[in-house]
Amino acid sequence: MTEKQLPVEPRDIDSYRRLIRALWAEKKTVAGIVGAVVVVMLVYVLIMPQTFTSTVSLLPPQKENKSLGLGSLLQGASSLPMFDIGSSLGFGGRPSDIFAEILKSQSVAESLIVQHDLAPFFGIPEDLSYRHAVDLLRESTDIEVNKNGLIRVSVTLGTGFFASGDEIDSIKALTASVTNDYVIWLDRINRDKLISSARNSRMFIEEEIERTEAELDSAYARLVRFQRENKSVFLEKQMEAALGGAADLREKMMELKVELSLSRQDFTESSKHIRQLQAEIDELSKQYAALSTGSKEADADFSVPFMRVPEVAREMAGYLRDVKTLEQVILYLSQQYFQDRVQEAKDTPTVQVLDAAVPAIKRTAPRRAVWMLMTLFFSTLFAVLAVMLRTYLRSRASHNANTGDRTAQS
């Protein structure tokens, strides 16, 4: 089934016709209102302040190696850490985000305001501090970091009313200059922080080197004293020589004992030959015992006694370990010290500009065509509503008057 359409009553049709006739009759009024509003708005958009935007693009900062740890220390500091801007400034996160925070900082804003004398430009009275312009500059600045780490800094500044061509050109140049100076101050702050960090690190490392060298001298002295007391300058070679000497003593003792046994068959115990052989065997036995126990009868220039070899070897290994460790620490600190000196004296840019800011070709605002189209639409709507309201009020007044006349006649 199809729904029944409500019939249009003749009275409604008459109402629409009267409305159209009324609008047509008041077409000059509608056109006058629209024309007046459009002219006023046209004059306003021609004299209103104009804003211009300049943008500078920065490449993502390069992350530098930060291999500072025990591994590099024990490997002779073969991989030296480079200063990282984020750690130097106390920030974390991506380097691009760190750069963005520096660009938004109070110090950068104040430096730009002083450099370009922006306080009067933003309407700050002379009796107030230029710091009152910081928030206004931040509102005029847009800092964006995309997912690839590319940084864009955009600055938007405007003219006053009735801007002349010279004022417009001046604002364009000022906008581009302020935008580019954001990069300059970012680079300057980075360098100052890096140089300051390098200087502090160098001074700290100097103190550490002096302290470690004193410890190394003490470790050397302990090692030398231990070697002198234990006659263990070259322990392994000394032990090889001592073992060879002990083997010779043992072999000679065996030969003399065999000879003594054979001689006892021909000589008595009281004979001079037997006593001489026995004395030689006793002397060799004392020398062999001295090698094992380190008795006072042993030669003062002989090696470490066999029984003390494990103990001496362990103690000597500890002294050598202390010396080698301190030598490795000094090597690492020395390399880091010279790196800090280079960093302190380095004067290379820390920021890479992809696209520098240039004076804007087109204004950012006002968009005059959009303003005029919106003015035309809303002024027409307002004029039509005004005419309809006036027509309605007139019709209502006429109807009331006719009703009153009929009532009076009756």
List the helices and strands and how they pair.
Blueprint: H1 10-25, H2 27-47, E1 51-58, H3 70-74, H4 85-89, H5 95-103, H6 106-116, H7 118-121, H8 134-139, E2 141-145, E3 151-158, H9 165-230, H10 235-263, H11 272-293, H12 309-345, E4 353-355, H13 368-409
Antiparallel strand pairs: 1-3, 1-4, 2-3
Helix pairs in contact: 2-13, 6-9, 9-12, 10-11
Task: Considering the chains and any ligands shown, give keywords for the structure.
3 domains, 4 strands, mainly alpha, rod-shaped, 13 helices, 67% helix, four-stranded antiparallel β-sheet
Structure commentary:
The protein has 410 residues and is mostly helical. The protein has 3 domains: 31-48 and 368-394, no CATH class; 49-228 and 348-365; 229-331. Helix content is 67%, strand content 6%. The chain contains 13 helices and 4 strands. It has a 4-stranded antiparallel beta sheet. Strand 2 (141-145) and strand 3 (151-158) form a beta hairpin. Helix 10 packs antiparallel against helix 11 (272-293). The radius of gyration is 51 Å and the shape is rod-shaped. The model is unreliable at 66-85, 87-92 and 296-302 (pLDDT under 50).
